[in-house]
Amino acid sequence: MVLIILGQAWTPWVNWQVMNPQLLTLAGDTPLDDLVGLPNGIEIAYSVIEDLAHFSFDQQRQILQIIAEMIEVEQTLPRSHPGLSNEDFRTARDAYRDFEWLCDALKFQPLPRLFDGTEVSPQDLYNVLALYKVGEVIAATRGSDYHQFPNSVVENLIESTKAMIKAMVSTQAMEQKSARRKAKGIEQTKEEIIAQARSEAAQAAANVRHKAGRIAKEKAIRLYFEGTFPSVDYASMVIADQVFKAPRTVANWISEAKKKRDQS
């Protein structure tokens, strides 16, 4: 695979044992309602998949390859390891999380382009990293009831959340939106740009939270009508444990759904 940085072709060496591209596929293909019990799972997956919709899977895989290469480069540089000897540089990959490596790399390394010349922004890099980390979590929790998580899963969830938030408040993202507004003849001060970006980020976050709630509700209702329960109260107790909501909330959802079905 040939990528382009600042117009120059280069062929990166990447250890795919460190960053497995199949985890991107797993995160993208897993139904959102399978992530109901995963803290922030729906919110992260839905948000970043929406933001990456303009990239094909092959392009997302290339972006993951870029991330892996940028980290590989960063970890070999003395600035990344103050106090370590040269011999220790290449063995210090686990000294920091991937998110921290990427943050450092973006401070010093030029932004790359895909092999077809498509520009890649910091926002794109953070979104792909967030989705990749969701894939790691899904792979690690297959068959789990989501009630107890090993430390590695919690760390990946936190890392994925950080990457998603970083993408949402990316300086470059704000600048791109400002440039689009300016092209339309809308002039804004720096303070107005920041305030607008924060408002849009807050609205986007609210939309994602509502999406997660809707998915939990739809799953609860589907489980009720697909099952056989002696009463709504009993069903709500059983289903609440599967959608990670209070039994009273689930009971209200079921009662509402039954009423609509009876009226139709």
Structure commentary:
- The protein has helices spanning 22-29, 41-51, 57-75, 98-108, 122-140, 151-168, 171-183, 190-226, 232-243, 247-263, and strands at 3-5, 8-10, 112-113.
- It has 264 residues and is mostly helical.
- The chain folds into 2 domains: 1-168, no CATH class; 208-264.
- Strands 2-1-3 form a 3-stranded antiparallel β-sheet, with no helix packed on it.
- β1 and β2 form a beta hairpin.
- The model is unreliable at 1-16 (pLDDT under 50).
Which features does this protein show?
62% helix, mainly alpha, 3-stranded antiparallel sheet, 264 residues, 2 domains
List the helices and strands and how they pair.
Elements: E1 3-5, E2 8-10, H1 22-29, H2 41-51, H3 57-75, H4 98-108, E3 112-113, H5 122-140, H6 151-168, H7 171-183, H8 190-226, H9 232-243, H10 247-263
Antiparallel strand pairs: 1-2, 1-3
What is the compact description of this entry?
By secondary structure, this protein is mainly alpha-helical.
